[in-house]
Write a structure and sequence with these properties.
This protein has four helices and no strands. The protein is mainly alpha-helical. α1 packs antiparallel against α2. The chain starts with 14 loop residues before the first helix and ends in an 8-residue tail after the last helix.
Length: 111
């Protein structure tokens, strides 16, 4: 999704793996290198942010419209994770939660 909106480069081979390996390396390094554990959390976060920007993001500032469209998609995905569902169908059930979240749920697929 972020590549489609131009927020990540499209020339990075195996982007998902590369992102996971980068993030995982930052998480594991404290256990492997005692000197790394001496950096405060902000310094580690700044280093990770720099690597992500340099290795995975295109040059320049993102297009505000692309950023807004990607944010809306991400929010939709997250909201989908938080909607109450019925165990049998996996669909939102007004009986289980009469909230507005159910009212905005998409219809269940028939497949």
């Amino acid at each position: 999704m972020l590549t489609r909106h131009g927020l990540f480069r499209d020339d990075v081979p195996n982007l998902g793996y590369a992102l996971s390996a980068t993030h995982g390396g930052f998480l594991l390094l404290d256990n492997l290198d005692p000197a790394a554990a001496e950096l405060d959390v902000q310094a580690r976060a700044d280093s990770l942010a720099h690597i992500v920007r340099a290795a995975f993001e295109p040059a320049g500032q993102p297009d505000p419209q692309a950023l807004a469209a990607a944010a809306a998609e991400v929010l939709e995905v997250i909201e989908g994770w938080t909607r109450p569902t019925t165990p049998a169908t996996g669909t939102c059930s007004p009986a289980s939660s009469p909230s507005a979240a159910c009212a905005s749920s998409p219809p269940a697929s028939s497949s």
